[in-house]
Amino acid sequence: MEHEVQDHVRMTKKMLLKDVARLAGVSEMTASRALRGARDVSKSTRAKVEEIARAHGYVPNRIAGSLSSQSVNLVAVVVPSLNSFVFPEVLSGISSVLKQSPLKPVVGISGYELNEEEEVIREMLSWRPSGLIVAGLEHNDATRRMLLQADCPVVEVMDVDGTPLRHCVGISHLQAGRDMAAQILARGYRRIGFIGTKMPQDFRARKRFDGFAEGLAAQGVTLVDLEHYAGDSSIETGRALTANMLARQPDLDCIYYSSDVMSVGGYMHCLATGLSVPGDVALAGFNNLQILSGLPLQLATTDACRRDIGERAAEILLQARDSAEELAPICEALSPRISLGQSL
């Protein structure tokens, strides 16, 4: 059914301002002024025009006059956060490829909120960028309509577990979770806990958890304890949640974290309390962040190919932009690499 809906949307002709005006029963000038928030348009008319535009994925053009049918040399990049070390490396990959072209990236932050993502993407598309790169495959209906109607190439990144709108490049987070479960079980650990952040807003972290739990269940093992923390990842939070979990379950022999930032916090707790890693408790994280390289003990992790994803996304975008014909959908799954370190 989902595929049928997408196919239907793709076949629908692109909405123009005159179409929005016709559906709203107003002139094009009034519709244009309503979408710009002009004060001389009544609240009811503005609300009606905005709702029709949103329902049909129409994005007003912010470029005035003779430039109105053109695009600018900007690539919109929408990510959930810049607070962690994850997405700056994706941006580095994007920038390294785009610098060979006239295009420059501009970044928008969604805060892991789908409605905020919608607003950010609407504003960015209104400036008619030459391309858009967005993290994740999950969007609300209004955002999906906008992306399908976009006048530029769109590439979804970081994830391949789902149905892309057109082009995507990322890793399977479900499989990454399963693979880490297999490695942990192969080393004899059975009393296992999981600590994750931004649950359930971080769809990719949730998929890793699901894959991890599936991998354990396939071998007849269930999680002894888990913590789905709603806030952001931080070393301080990882330390506190590890302390709480080990207080509840002192005989845990392994903890898997949704991010390396959290696993570093867990390691700090172990150092402060005299627990041996992995003698008393084994630890594993995700992302292979640079902060791991400065620790006295190498923590187990998974390299999520962040820079590679950014580079490949930019390459696909340039390929689509420069193609004489519409580029066939590209979906590439990169292979994450597990590093066992010294903590498993």
Automatic annotation (TrEMBL):
Keywords: DNA-binding, Transcription, Transcription regulation. Gene3D superfamilies: 3.40.50.2300, lambda repressor-like DNA-binding domains (1.10.260.40). Residues 15-69 form the HTH lacI-type domain. CDD domains: HTH_LacI, PBP1_GntR. It comes from the Bacteria. The keyword RNA-binding does not apply. One of its GO terms (molecular function) is DNA binding. SMART domains: HTH_LACI. PANTHER family: LACI-RELATED TRANSCRIPTIONAL REPRESSOR, TRANSCRIPTIONAL REGULATOR. This is LacI family DNA-binding transcriptional regulator. It comes from Pseudophaeobacter arcticus. The lineage of its organism: Bacteria, Pseudomonadati, Pseudomonadota, Alphaproteobacteria, Rhodobacterales.
